[in-house]
Amino acid sequence: MSGDNVNHPAHYTQGGIECIDAIRAATTGLNGFEGYMTGNAIKYLWRWKHKNGSEDLAKAQWYIDLLKKEASKNAQ
User: Fold this and answer.
1) Which of 6, 17, 30, 65 has the fewest CB within 10 Å, making it most exposed?
2) Where are the domains of the chain?
């Protein structure tokens, strides 16, 4: 990995858009905890191929599973 690992890490700047910008757009209108879980799932899905592989996929799944539990609890 090259570049600025603090401000613009290579594993977060794929496809001409930075992950932080995609997370901001995807979490607009979500409440705090839902936004946090959604953002983290996106983060790990975004970088999995360029950083930690299947470990990042497992982390994304963990956040998605937690988000599903929270969403079903709030739907009742």
Assistant:
1) 6
2) 15-75
